[in-house]
Structures are given as C-alpha cells and as structure tokens.
Amino acid sequence: MPNIIEIADFQAPELDVYARLTEAQLLNRHELKKGLFIAESPKVIERALDAGYEPVSFLMERKHIEGQAKYLLDRCPEIPVYTAEFDILTKLTGFMLTRGTLCAMRRLPLPTAEDICAKARRIVILENIMNPTNVGAIFRSAAALNMDAVLLTPGCSNPLYRRSARVSMGTVFQIPWTYIGEEMTDWPENGMKTLRRMGFKTAAMALSDNSVSIDNPALLAEEKLAIVLGTEGDGLAETTIAGCDYTVKIPMSHGVDSLNVAAASAVAFWQLGR
Question: Is 86 helix (H, G, I), strand (E, B) or coil?
C-alpha cells in the first residue's frame, strides 16, 4: 500500500523540497552527493526510475493516487506520498503541476566525458545555454535523432532542473550527459583538447564567411563529430568558433538569418546524425 500523507501544514519541512528550495539549493553544489531534483509528470518520473534514480517522496493530486500515477506508487510502495486537491498543490508549489504529479529524487554521480564518449560517434556540446526549456528541447532532439551523448559547459542550465527534464519528456535520463570541465575557464581551450584527445572533429553551428553548408559531404564522412551549439542570443564565442574544425550553417530562406538554438539543434542532429 502507498504511504499516503494528507497535507495539513504548508510549512511542514518535508515539503520544503517542493515549496521553498530553489533549483540551486536542490542541486547543492557544495555537497553534490546530497543533491536532489524534482521530476514532473508520470512519464518523466518513470524514465528517471528506469534510469536508476532514487525517489525521496511524491507530491500529487489526490485523484492520481488511484489514477495515472498508480503504477509509479506500485513501484515505490514505501515512499511518502504527499497529497491534496489541485488548487492547494498549486498554492504550495507556485505553479500548476503537469499531470498533477511531482517526485523528489536523489541525483546520481556524473560520469566523465571520456566514459560516456568512449564508443560515441556523434555527440553534442552545449556552450552556456541558460534557458531550461531550450536545454530540455535539445536533449529530446538529441535522443530522438541519433546523438550518442551530450556534454555541457559549466555555464549551462542543469538538465535535471524541473522544466528541462519535463520539456525533454524524460530523455535527460535516457541519453548520457555530463559536464566538460568543472570551471568556467575549462572551456573552450581545455575542453577542445579533451575532444581532440577522444578523436572528435568539431563542428561549430554559426554564421560566418567560412561557414560550410550542413549538407557538406565532408561533415557526413567524419568518423567522430562533435556538434557545438551556442548560447541564446549571442551564439558561440569567437574563440570557440576559431577552435573548431568546421563552422557550419543551415541554409535559410525568406531573409531569415538564424533559428532558435533548440530548432537549429533538431535540424543539425537530423542531418549529421545519419
């Protein structure tokens, strides 16, 4: 039987993880082993469980206990389930729950870039992409379109932030990822050295006089290719572009000069992941 706890006190410390801790506090950079994240919606929670993440507690609308979340509770019979009606949960969390279900989970140790790229042929590098929605959308496209791993610079939004994981539809738990370097100064110089050491050629997605079209045969012929995507607005840093083996553009029409980074990623993965 699930361990059902009716919410009677908004200030109960057990609810801090849902109501009062910021994403940065959940991440707990000073003690990463104690870090948590919030998975939102049954599909995302299911994929996190399948990937081996440990649940701490659930927060869900009462009707879902015997409804769409029942199969999750059957998998986790000892885990506390805090519950109330939808409007009360919205007041508690400050946002409308997607499909009425949240789960606080423990983070797992991150692998090294070398570990997840050992057998990879196509990987993604995200440079300082800060919007969680964009990060989640890129992960979803990467998983769907034949990318083998995602590496993030330290300036990126964390893929396990609630919105990123939800927008990704849980694919952040299906495609291997980690950070390339621990400090902001590790990228691009040290990060590029790591990629070269692993045998990857690098393709910067950027507009310049030296850009080649994304359908250039040389790109498709590369045995191991890292597709490098830049931050919203400014795109890739000039030093990053200069350090890459290719600068690549997506041909445009109607006078449009660029796509949102998430949209551009899907085009790039489709073309270069074949």
Answer: helix
Residue 99 main-chain phi, psi, to 5 deg? 55, 25
Token pair listed for 116: 């997840």
Residue 223 Cα to chain centre, angstroms:
25
Q: DSSP labels for 178-238?
A: EES-SSGGGTTHHHHHHHHHTT-EEEEE---TTPEETT-HHHHH-SSEEEEE-BTTTBS-H
Q: Which two tokens stand for residue 178?
A: 């980690």
Report how far apart, in Å, the C-alpha atoms of 79 and of each of 4, 68, 107 are: 9, 17, 16
- Taking 80 as the threshold, does the pLDDT of residue 195 lie above it? yes
For 210-225, the pLDDT digits (tens) are 899 999 999 999 999 9
What is d(CA 53, CA 107) in angstroms, rounded to the nearest whole number?
7
DSSP 3-state of 159: coil
Alpha-carbon gap, residue 152 to 230, rounded angstroms: 11
- pTM over the 0.90 mark: yes
Q: Look-up: residue for tokens 């590098």?
A: 125
- The answer to whether 142 and 133 are in contact (CB under 8 A) is no
Return the structure tokens found at 86. Answer: 């939808």
Summarised one tens digit per residue, pLDDT across range 25-69 is: 998 766 767 899 999 999 999 999 999 999 999 999 999 999 999
What tokens appear for 60 in the block? Answer: 């869900």
Q: How would residue 2 be classed by pLDDT, with cut points 50, 70 and 90?
A: confident
